[in-house]
Structures
1.
Amino acid sequence: MNRQATNLERNITLTVNGERVTRSVAARMHLVDFLRETLGLTGSHLGCEHGVCGACTIRVDGLTVRGCLMLAVQADGATVETIEGLTDSSKAADLQEEFLNRNALQCGYCTPGMLMTAVELLDRNAKPTREEIRDAISGNYCRCTGYHAIVDAIETVAKSRSSKKGTAS
Amino acid sequence: MKASEVGYAKPASLPEVFALLEKNEDARLLAGGQSLIAGLNMRLSNPTLLIDINGIAGLNTITESGGTIRIGALTRHLDLGASPLIAAKLPLIAKAVPHIAHMAIRNRGTIGGSLALSDPATELPACCLALNATMTAASSKGERKIPVKTFFKGLFETDLKQNEVLTAIEIPLPAAGSLSGFSELVRRHGDYAIVGLAAQGVRKGSSWSQLNLSYFGVGDHPVLAANASEALLADKSMADAQAVLASDLSPSEDAENSAATKLHFARVLLGRVVASMS
């Protein structure tokens, strides 16, 4: 019996960073392994592989998810966005620049996941307090920065986006 | 680590799920997957088949009828926390949701998954106990209602049978003027609770006429602190209620906290949560 017939493998079609892809994947493969190993999108990182560290945070159908806690087969039909797509779309350009300015990354391993979380936070709450920023990034571990610079960067972007909006209206 | 080899099926209807469950004894239902997939990656569980129930319509709605709020088992924590109906009618749940893990996990995790897993340190099982919920379990033989008091059986163990699917949670509307309170102690925000308390009650003037104190993190599953609640119902002091908690709870030590520390935390939470209920 072939692997497809035994449900161990399955064809999936999904949109990744605006591009439609179809692949046959093993049911046991999680979404980040699929993105990294099958599609070569290595911007999403793998840390703990059990949902604790947040390094693998990506967007599926517009919401952040732990890429290690979702199977690739579950993403059949979904729209997936990784840090590569986010960078191409410039949606996080101001955050990326401010992370750089504030030295909010050192080794950079947590940064893609951190940015995904920051984008979602600012989508939902344009003017978060520092406490709310800390709450939002509580699921993204950074072992280098001590977080202060990351909170500073997100807060600065929130303020500058709000003031730009204020000027426009 | 990586999950070991596993089969995957995504049926479109409950009868198909029942048939798969009956054919595959060690199949696991995949709802939000936020604990199940972590367990697969760590090879703590090794089922032959995952039955993804996310393709089944109608399992993720929140409705009110005849004095009951019905929450579909596939309702994600994100939607539970954002529901105006939950905020207005079951504020205890609205207060608990922000404490569940982190944003990216709340975006996927479901109430049914949380209850069916019955992790002793999680928020929603304790809320369901405080709110006197009733679970609906469906199988090829029909539906069965399970009162929350008989639903939790042990550590990660519930009354659900292998061939059953938890489809909905029904919660009676709390009495008018009912008060709720929720708090938990954690080392870092989003961690599993060391000790937590979900409370729901009715106060007339300065006296409680009804009070459910549902603790989590202190046993194999959430427990009601009946003696502490009785003390407060009898207008005894908070110190008296905190003292009798020792007869309600028998927490076991974990890697960081002794049983005595946990009991102390439970007493601290009793004071804080009851004071917050106004």
Note: Chain B is about 35% helix and 25% strand.
2.
Amino acid sequence: MDSIQRQELDMILYLMLEKEASDQQIERLDSLLENDPEALAHAMDYYLITAALRKSNAIPSASFNTQDEIDEQFNLLKVFAEEERIAPTVAIPAEEKKRSQAAVVRPAAPKSDHQKTMLWALVASMAALFLFFASVKFIPNREPVAVLAEAVEARWQNGEEALKIQDFFYNTDRPRTLRSGTIEIEFNSGARAVVEGPAEFVCKSDNMISLSYGRLYSRVPQHATGFTVLAKDARIVDLGTEFGVQANVDGTLELHVTHGKTSLIAGDKSSRDIYQIPAGQARKVSDQGTSVKEIELKGSAFAQKIDTETGLVWKGQKTLNLADITGGGNGFGTGTLEAGIDPGTGRPILFGPELYNIHPVVSNAYHRVEGRPFVDGVFVPNSTDRPQIVSSQGHIFENCPQTNGTYYTGIINGTVQEFGWGGPGLKLNGIVYGTADSPAIFIHANQGITYDLAAMRRALQGAPIVRFESVCGISQTAVLHGMADFYVLVDGQVRFHQSDIRKDQFCDVRVDLSGKDRFLTLATVASPNKKTPEGLNIEHGDWCLFGNPRLILE
Amino acid sequence: MDKNQIHSDDFLNLLMQKQMRIYAFILSVVRNFEDADDILQDTVHTMWQKYPECQPIHDFVSWGIQVAYYKILEYRKQQHRSSHIHLNNSLFDQMLTAAKTINRDCDDRIEKLKNCLKQLSPRGRKFIELRYYQDLKPKQISVLLGMPILNVYKILGRVHSQLVHCVKTIS
């Protein structure tokens, strides 16, 4: 067989593989194979090589950098197979059979006709594996595999280059040490991992991180299923989920699964066991991976989302505290008690005796607030001369009452405990408000504040804010003649209004919110029906507060 | 861990390691991916069912090829199937005989194949990657790369030929 014949033979062999050979070519091939032993032997070599291309690890071996990475790809095969074995049966239309690829299957106890369906479901999962492989390109020596997406107070090991937002992590990086603070890494696959310092890690590929020690919380979109966290004696493979991992320097590891499910592979290469861990469960791995024990779930122990701009570190809390935000915090307790905002200027203030006897008279101008990313602006409600604007987008409070344009103290996160006429601090229904445990926005009439819901959603990376809840009233510690109206607006529209609330009276507020709602406004004005002692301003004694004001996160 | 679980784990491990050889046997007889894939699936299904009762199995590949052999015979009986599988009896017997020796020096040749893949031109590697690693059909590759499908067949045919030649000649 000369080289020309061999080329002709190879071309027909290939077209045959793809079912694209013509009848004449098939006849020619059969003739060659039947009459030429050399051609037949060559064809056998050809088929072996082709089978190896299709069904062995030859291509990844020739493409990936290390044996560890190849091992990990094939570990996934086991994981997906195990996943399919325990998954509910999924019927696949008959026509899909033709399109499916033959693949490794995970056997289960033969019981019924569903077996074959399960087999096909498993084959479908193998297709997912191929997709996973497809997501990993031929790797040259050094490739970016992830970026630093967010960072809050991150301090890196001395001598290491400090990373900036959007800086790359490379697959060939040496281990990085985060001494303190929190970072969020976005992998090329779409998986995200929040890492809390102190921690040491390497982003090994676009869907894999190796964690020597530290805490990590990962969120993996469906298309990045298979995201893997490598630790000393265990590895965790995502199956469409969110989970937290704490790897300790002594080699022990905790896995906390908050959503979806994961596979935990414990042990070394010679002996690995696979465990399926569903949402709501946690495991501790110790003794070189030989001991895997169930432990109490502590999902809220992990930073799950962070935001560079606001410094927000979210650990799964279900509420945002608006009093804390008013005091300069991020809603999770980082604000300052007795700090607030002057509605006449938009500037920050700290409550103290110097404010006790000041009653400014100002316009109804809307003032943007700097330095508090979740507060859009403040104002002194009064529609006497012009419409009342209540947001930076120009939303109008249509039926805003006319007031005297006077306010008292500012809008404050709580108040000093010595302050009070009929007793210290703020009190409603016997509960002392304005403390860290019972927060409150002290918003004496006439004042208004608008919060930026969209900014909060951005910082929480889309976490839905579904409701505003609070109790509102006039403090029991106010003077007798206090009487005010309370408003809650969303994008300028009144969603809650309670008029003529007197000292010692209170009511619950519950305003549902949707993803389209941009601004939430709280306002109080002196009741027009109120009668104050001669010589006192009409707003005198209106010690209004929103107790435990919170946004509910879904 | 119960007995079924142990069998399942064993079977999976063996299949992961050996299925390529069973597939090579099937492919060399039926000569196209589509039929070979179907037969491999049926073969694996039967192997999975029979695995517990066939213990001990000393040679997993030989057993798999034996199961595959009967599956191929079943396929041949289905007259409505593609003519691609309709070899005349004489050639079919020749192919079967030759195919049973196909796994000779298999490990050595796969190692050589890995080296040969590294020696391919970037373009050749890309085509192999697209066809086998990303599992794209020639038609999809032609759309992806914006080239006539005939050219895709030619290039892939040529790259296969290079690989086979390289594996045969590389030391």
Note: Chain B touches chain A through 69 residues (CB under 8 Å).
